[in-house]
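ASSEMBLY PREDICTION REQUEST
Request ID: AP-0331
Submitted by: J.K., bench scientist
Number of chains: three
Total residues: 1028
Priority: normal
Notes: Please return the full assembly, not individual chains.
Input sequences:
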Amino acid sequence: MSFIEFVEGPMFYAAAAIFVAAGLWRIIGILRIGKKPDLAPPRGSATAGWWKGNLRHFFPRGLFAERTWMHILGGYGFHLGLFVLLFFAAPHIAFVERFTGLSWPALPRWGFIIAAEIAFAGLIVLWVRRFSDPVMRQISDWDDHIGTWLTFLVMLTGCLALQESVVALRATHMLFVNIWLIYFPFSRLMHAFTVFLSRGATGASYGRKGMNP
Amino acid sequence: MTNVAITTLLNQTDSDIAAYLEACVHCGECAEACQFYESTRDPKYTPTFKLAPLVKAYKRHKAPLRGIKKIFGLVPDEVTEDELREWEPLIYDSCTMCGRCTLVCPMGIDIAGTIRKVREGYAAADIVPDGLKQARVNVEKTSSPMGVTPKALLAQIKHQEEDTGLKIPVDVQGADYLALFSSHEIMASPEIIGAYARIFAKAGLSWTISTEAYEATNVGVQIGSGPLAAKLVQRVVDEAERLGVKYVISPECGHAYGAIRWAGPNLIGRTFDFEVLHIIELLDRLRRDGLIPAGKKDERRLTLHDPCQIVRRGGLLKEPRRLMDDACSNFVEMPGAGIANLCCGGGGGVSANQRAEELRTKAFGVKLDQIEKLGGVDAVVIPCANCRGVFEDGLFDLDRELEVIGLGELVAETLADDPPKAAE
Amino acid sequence: MRHILSFLAICLIVATGVPASAQDPVTQTRESIMERQRGLGLSGDYSLPSGQPPAPEAVQPGSVPQLGTRGYASDSDIWRALRDGSANATPSSSTAASQLMQVIGDDWRMIRHDYLIKYAGWVLLGVILLIALFYLIRGRIMIRGGRAGKTIPRFSMSHRIAHWFLASTFILMALSGLIILLGRPVLVKGLGEWLMVGQLGMDDSVVTTLKSVNGVLNSAALQGHNLFGPVFILSLLIVIVRFMKGNFFQKADFGWILKGGGLIGGHASSNHYNFGEKTWYWVVVLVGLMISVTGLFLLFPWLSDNLRFHQAATILHAIGALGMICFAMGHAYVGSVGMEGSLDSMLRGEVDVNWAKEHHDLWYEEVTGEKVSHDHDDTAATGAGTAEGTA
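STATUS: Completed
Returned structure:
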């Protein structure tokens, strides 16, 4: 078995299985802790609040945005860029199609290159802030840095393989993808999913109070 | 002692708190919303950092997948007593549980609510600032954190009856409304009792003050002791149900409202037989029902401070504004008014904590800057007795002048004259 | 900003010599040959270009070629005409298409291969050795009198983010660029042919392997370089704007130069930035913009069909980048290992008061309103003078 066959075959299956199983385990584990029902008579709907909380926090508040615009630009740039890159790059869609048969329209090459550039710029800005801001230095731990670096390496090896003609480069990219998938559910990268629980919890409790911060 | 703290911390961690701890990405945005960070620029005041003891305990004992992490040695060590003590000032002195950090948090984490849970662990282990300990002792003796006795209350009521010429009902069985007050109001601004009397008389409602349950503030909530908080709520509930009132009126006091309105039923484990209303909510209701029509407006330039526990975390956003519009002709809003308004700096028991005084004054400085930016404000209307106290202390410490008035007082002063009076 | 860009564009055009025909290689025309044969044009300058384009009818199809010394016009003349582009070999009017044989590429190849690639690596190694040597002689420059423990703010959050943003993209661009430029000579020629086969006597197949490794690395480096290029330009523009304030040369810079940045003796006063830092800033601005413009040109080759532009762009891009990498290595050295307290300014945004007094006294006075005393400088300078390079 060649290296590329290994990283696109058994290793990928194992990594994907760990990603799904451990990810679900973690989400269910959080929910299983459970909570007592709220006995205070509500002034508004908790369900509506759950949705409002989730949607409202996608957008920064103007009052704070003035002070944190660099971070907001970096954060949006990285996340939106990564989203586009991940789901609308032709090689990624082709990869998904290979395994599932599902396919959807891809962005033209220049489109996803621009998305990648924005994502890279954003990620670098976020990482730079992490080590040069006293607040960030105070609260960051190894998980933050490993998560950032792994994501960066996945993106970097992906962009190095852009010529799509060198198997060794694609294999390197896949290797990092696999490592990233395995690391994901055990790390803070899980915020991609736990964010909805967290925003929802706050949204629901504020929703009951008739507020929606 | 540490074990008690850790056990309590873990018991307090429900799925919401777990989701918060799991979702934090250490982005540091919350620091930008925190007055204690803003006024000191000290990174240790970053809100999410204050949660560290809970995070450690959670990761070690409760977080999903901790078993696998343990194999790789990635689970944090047990929280030590030294750590708990090191974090104590962060948890009690530098957090008013104002909840502003939640607004800026991209993950929507309720850090204030989580701090409240962390305090449970601290209170259980009795690692608590002296100021709050003293308040707890006072409450256990007299039910009031400032040691206000029924006798003192009755004296103040008598004064107000003389001032207003109105009979103030005490311990009346079967009244519709039971009014609670905060010690600060009873001792420092008893006019508010007179204002209530005028308003209820105007609206023609039956009300009463109880000598058994007059204190609305809840040290249990501030210190983070669920059992004490439940005891204090229970006393009000028992008295309200004994008197058979339909409504209990929470006074202009931030945490007191949250304690009885939102936490109360959960603390005593059952719903109440009466409805809890905040005085502002009641005034707004009476105003809209036409029972207390507005009269001549105050023409000064006034602004409104939003007490965190009443507005952002209490849900009363529009009510105080409608009352303000009726009561004054020159109402200006602060930048970020309403849900994102700055805290006075002394909520959540910080004002009862002498150790935090310097820090609190700094945080108040940020608040004062916000008001002074408006320019030419004659007075600030504050529907919270604790905020008013913090304002007065802070203004004194910073040697600045600004009039501070309660919203209930303002409403009472700007009521329309009685039609019969007008006819006379 | 626009003015700087247009200025650079003009410089580029002038430097690369437009129009191209003005610099045609040494040419002989049919006339010059005929003249020489008739013994007329022995004026001695036959080998110099006339300045006029060669007569187009020289080898017009269908025309009867004039007799030369060896019968028909010699083949070499035809080749020469083809070579200098005067042959009109195709009916196309496009300059590139009508040129059947492109020779300027040969010049470019020679410059690139015999000068640029040959010396680039040695220049880089030389700079590294210089820095190492400086470290051995001078050691880490400590803060005179130690740290005060009190700090003052030097760079805001946005300065720091801008700086590290550029630094990160620069490192990525530099590494990938060096692989593109030096991958083959270092891996295949140096490591493979010279060391492994030549010195260690390994089998020739190792060279083949290294060639394919180099191929993979180059594919990766080129894609990375192209993708990060625009990000680098973005970060460069941010740095240019964010750091412009305070980076114009001032009176104190004269003194700083005269005192050799404090190396020669005495204390060299400086403002927020010293002469070395200002020079580095302007190198970043000018060279950075130059490699950005030339880089964009290489990324989007359809911007012009003039080959000379492209050739000049590759050469200038490489030279500029090499220069910047050399500067950056010195900058990184002084900013970290080389000088105590420098890294704080970019890591935490705050510097020790004593560091500020020593290296940027005028700035310190401006910020704090305090006078800095240099009484002890001379005594201390003999042992540990200040040497602000390009921190």
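REVIEWER COMMENTS: The interface with chain A takes residues 157-158, 160-161, 164-165, 168-169, 215-216, 219-224, 226-228, 230-231, 234-235, 346-349 of chain C (CB under 8 Å).
SIGN-OFF: pending second reviewer
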